[in-house]
């Protein structure tokens, strides 16, 4: 996701006052680097944050944040939605801003005002809000009793509260946590902790089990509805068996004809564990076993296990504890109750299995040995076989399943891949072309024990085993599920080569009665597929399986838990309730509801109630449904805090009347929020992994479940705390909660700071910069984006969120456009305080006392070279901090990128999950919002300075590089992508110190030379304290003159060709003269103090020369008592300017910046520029700031920033792509004025031509030779139009200036005298030089002849190289990017080189 520029807009809650208009675009691309995570422009009415309150903020589509208001102390904002022009926010509070409001309020966006909603609103906390746009109503849910129980409705038309049409929801905690709509928007889904009750159909016995099966507390409605598989034809062996003949026949326990006792019970041999093996030599679909203990004297089983055949696997079984009614699992030793009131217990597999038998091992017993009264193998629900002999009568069944047939059918037997196992089916041959009505038919009539929702499958044997593939075709199947239920017709393809189970129906099936039986009929399809074999089709009939998914058609559950507590004749639901918005009925959901009000989705609540275990379990486990999401397929996802009897933890799905576990049995912690985006279900809460730990702990609070693939996946590696709210919009997932970091790998050391709010790019599957900055425990985020709202307990917030860097450019308004770094940089998170420490005042400007010599106020330092003060401590560089930046244009791709350095780490864009992070240095592409690492070994330490010269990167700081001989300084070849330090000797420190390189610069007057400065003693074997030059052609170090002593913090240059180097720091000349600002003349390589060193109060931390003018220098630093100073040098003396900066202030950079407007000029700073002071500024008048602007008389706080902990941040540097730039402002005339001027000039030209004609006539009688000479001269002059336009342009400019502004065309003759006069007055000549100090030819672009403001400049590239040797011309290299400023002449265009900032005319044909 590309970072979008963020344009600050003035509003009622965020006023920036009248900030100076810095012309950032004049400097090219501009970056602002520092130790911050949030950035903002200084606000006159800054917002005060208190983390004991809950603050509501707006978020633009670009990500910038603005606070609106806060609640009372202890208040909470938990939910909200937008309806028309109002945003409704709710939670638990008594006021918002200055408005008294009880738990809910409305914010009107047009007026920026909050208002209360009536006087009879909810009397308790509100957890959920839903805006019904169509009906203009706001539904709220929570924990309150009035106007309705847990639910209330605000009618925006009548401005009144009412209870819901269903009265409310009660039971359990009586709390609604979520209100959402179904996928079509026709119904509302309510979720929380409450109980609903619907009238039953009167068929439930004891509130639990199937009435056609003897009741036992060891069975559930689900398990008691499973028809036992008839085992009359199976091989049953019990060994060892008792010698007592009355108890030795194991087949007696398959379907005992009487009570526990002789002839109905089996004993194992005394003192031995026993194994009962059941084998049926065909495949069976089984869901579990039913075991009934014997209570005969001295016999009984207490422990057992079940092994399935043929896979020989000991199965994990699920069962209901008959005493506690809790759901449990067991495997190698399962307990069997010895309570004689428990007739039997049902033990279920995790899912139905296709097996040929089981082996039950009785491993523990009481008395003399183990024994059983009942042993049954439970089917998946019900069944019927086409082979009549396989349809034996099941236990407890009044009759067996059955079939009826028409036409000729015969048995066909095939071997299977299981030794000794056969497969028998019925087949019928049908002539090709036979109609469906005339074809043979077969009807299955399965015995169905109990009503419920079933998946019905037809087993179609593969044609390979039966060797009849050529004859197979398509059949038509018709299912009649029950009285008053519509039949289902489906075609089934029988040409499968391997055995297949084909779904043919899903839905309710009514039980078998004397009056009704479910039927499944098969005939030849109307349009049978295939050509048959020898003119015949063969249709095949095998088995029908009915897989129970929920017990009872009106009380669905696929669990093995009891509905304890439910009364006979009613069905109770938990945590979920659907209400159709179109319903006009008035019912009472706080009591038992009629079945006519029950919707199909209410079955989910009944399934949850049964699955969780009824009222007792719900209360003891504080169960709740916190969030609901409805997928377009019809699947409803319900999540919260619960565990079902099928070991589904905290999240389940509901579809086709059945509650089902998600893969891996859900999640190992509670879920608080869901957000659905297509097939992506995002889940947030307090969990670490799935219940089966399938992701190795990578989910951590936020996870993705794909509905189609049914798979869980991580978002990076999650977050380090609870996620409270999720929202999806515009391809992004917004995550709010109580966390501080995002993880990018399984290591908790690899991640990004994100205190409370984060954004995930869904398509790219990466965490991205959220755009804004907030520190707090966030509780809520909305889906809307125009604007978006977030809320929580905020410690601090800024408009822009960026880890250490932003890009800044001009905008069409009074404030700049800020584009945050589009990637995340990593760093440690410090502990946060409970309130913001930022101090801001409403005073936007601080007056400075200018031109006052205040050096006598500070103690003068009498020092020698051996006793220099150390430099003050630099700005804090706690990671992530960007301390330096530079721009580089790739000469092969012409793509300009920013190179940043500092103390940070990052995961390179596109790197795979868990990749090793890069550190301290990165290449950032603003176009694609990607960051890449430099190839080769990584820097170990902190980068503090960068210089790009061509394709070479020079890196300085305090670091080493593994495997390379470098110390604080290194060189990198950007094109070859490798370190290039061969032959460059490492810098060496003084004893007891370390190397720190703070400045790397070049001078236009010294080719092939890089100046390196900081803290060091020598370069290799060469002694050069604090500053040294590197010859880049030979990679040899050289001393600069006689050198200096001390430490250098900053280097800049003066002079038209940068022939004078100015260095600041804690410096003494080689003769011991104190000179914290010193200059070196390259012409004679001699050092000298700038002014009197004693006039500078202390070591200098930042230095700036005003537009290369050696008579206008600014220096900032610290005195010996830690007082911050700013001094100005006027060419003769230093003046320390008074300020109200506090001792905590650290100034890291001074930079003169151009303005779009002007200020009142003075003898310190010209009107078209200001001094930007960067660092960590603490002022007694305006509080904290990170940058401020100084106009020579007033101090204007400009940028403020915050760290990830909420404390004040800092700005280390402003860097730009133009090496030089002009402070001269271009003033364009309006198009209309230009047209009038053009008309006037044209009229003058016409007059001139007329005059020439007259003169020509007067001289026409001259000698023909003279005329010939005049003709030749005219021809020569006419040919001059093909030559360079410099001279012509210069005269046109002069004439144009005279016409437009009244300037004399001969004013240039006195320019040198005027310059001397200005310099004599201590003033710099204005508007005469570009930033590179060469004289420009003034062109029409400066005075209205170029594109006006309504005709913006446009980019172009050089098709050919152009030497630009003429005056006013711009030299170009082929491929260079330029900006066209004036293209009105067809031959020559006025342009600016975007890399250097230089301007001039170029041939139009050379550009494209």
Automatic annotation (TrEMBL):
The keyword Transmembrane helix applies. Residues 1306-1334 are annotated as: Disordered. InterPro entries: Gal_Oxase/kelch_b-propeller (IPR011043), Rax2-like_C (IPR024982), Rax2-like_second (IPR048266), Rax2-like_third (IPR048265), SH3-like_dom_sf (IPR036028), SH3_domain (IPR001452). Residues 1351-1408 form the SH3 domain. Keywords: Membrane, SH3 domain, Signal, Transmembrane, Transmembrane helix. It comes from the Eukaryota. This is Cortical protein marker for cell polarity-domain-containing protein. It comes from Lentinula aciculospora.
